[in-house]
């Protein structure tokens, strides 16, 4: 098992990465568990696929208590958290209990928020099961739920005690979910590591074949970038904002499409192409880099063209995004493949590439 430390000053923890080492996973869980039971929060899909396979984690000394929510982003709501809180009470969870968040980003965000709020905060461990969650959402302690008004509007920064990334979970993940996660992988490549970019370019077919070595390498590289950034800037004051590359326009697209028929990764891919176009038109990014980015995104099975809503519609959507401040937006631009920077841009400047 490989380990990466997330050196957040007041809440450091370790990310453990392995293909399927359940013995070690069990040791890590036991190290953080003060009781003879573990509260596993998951969804129906993941439970069905993995309840039996995860049996070696448990013994008479460590009983599994399953709490299951329905599958889907539409359940990432306060009402689900309340149900889980009530179930935790019924199942006698107390302030020393430990939660295991077992699932993709939806389960991770909900379980993390439940852990942050149950009895004013109890410990939790992330065990992510999608590519997106393994490279992104399980690390950094952003937890929360959606409101009718928009995504992730209620939440807390609340760090897990450990993150256990077992890459074999990805074997059962549908291809469209792999592609969804790849958008975030490309994001890391673009903002911080051109090596990942060129590695993806030559190895993407292996990813779709679920080749363990390729996936392990990519996940490890992405996580080391994320661990490094969140350790420097836990609460997104500056550095961490770089992780939002492609997300301003991406979130606007998700919102304009009412979160229907578009996955987060698909929207982020369009947003990254948009941000690259803009970076190029503002003179930050070379044309060759822009072309290479579009080519890689297409190879990954993602679409590069953003939907043709009006400029006004995009304006309203951008302002609704919680990162917007007045008419100016902190926008992440690319300097070159592997390097990004923050620009304070007006909405008109940002939207100047819409017609391309
Ligand atoms: N907290 C953060 O920092 C952060 C970062 C990025 C995204 N997010 C959030 O993450 C969420 C998206 O996460 P996601 O893309 O993982 O979606 P998801 O959690 O909905 O999972 C996608 C689908 O895959 C299924 N699934 C999960 N693991 C599986 C497996 N091993 N085999 C087969 N099927 C499996 C799920 O049941 C679901 O149907 C969004 O709500 C987003 O806001 C949070
Ligand atoms: Zn994202």
Summed over residues and divided by their number, the pLDDT gives a mean of 95
Structural class: alpha/beta
CATH architecture assignment of the largest domain? Up-down Bundle
Provide the CATH topology of the largest domain. Dehydroquinate synthase-like, alpha domain
Strand order of the largest sheet: 1-2-9-6-5-3-4
> CATH homologous superfamily of the largest domain?
Dehydroquinate synthase-like - alpha domain
Number of domains: 2
Tell the overall outline. Answer: globular
The rounded distance between the terminal residues' Cα atoms is: 46 Å
CATH class of the largest domain: Mainly Alpha
Written overview of the protein:
The chain is α/β, with parallel strands linked by helices. The protein folds into 2 domains: 2-171, 3-Layer(aba) Sandwich (Rossmann fold), CATH 3.40.50; 175-353, Up-down Bundle (Dehydroquinate synthase-like, alpha domain), CATH 1.20.1090.10. 45% of the residues lie in helices and 21% in strands. The chain has 13 helices and 12 strands. The chain has helices at residues 22-32, 44-50, 78-90, 105-117, 131-137, 175-192, 194-208, 212-232, 247-256, 264-281, 287-299, 311-320, 347-350; strands spanning 2-6, 13-18, 37-43, 63-69, 98-103, 123-128, 142-147, 150-157, 162-166, 324-325, 328-336, 339-346. Strands 1-2-9-6-5-3-4 form a 7-stranded mixed beta sheet, with helices on both faces. The radius of gyration is 20 Å and the shape is globular. Residues 43, 45-46, 49, 71, 73, 76, 103-107, 109, 129-130, 132-133, 136-137, 140, 142, 151-152, 169, 172-173, 177, 180, 264 line the site of nicotinamide-adenine-dinucleotide (NAD).
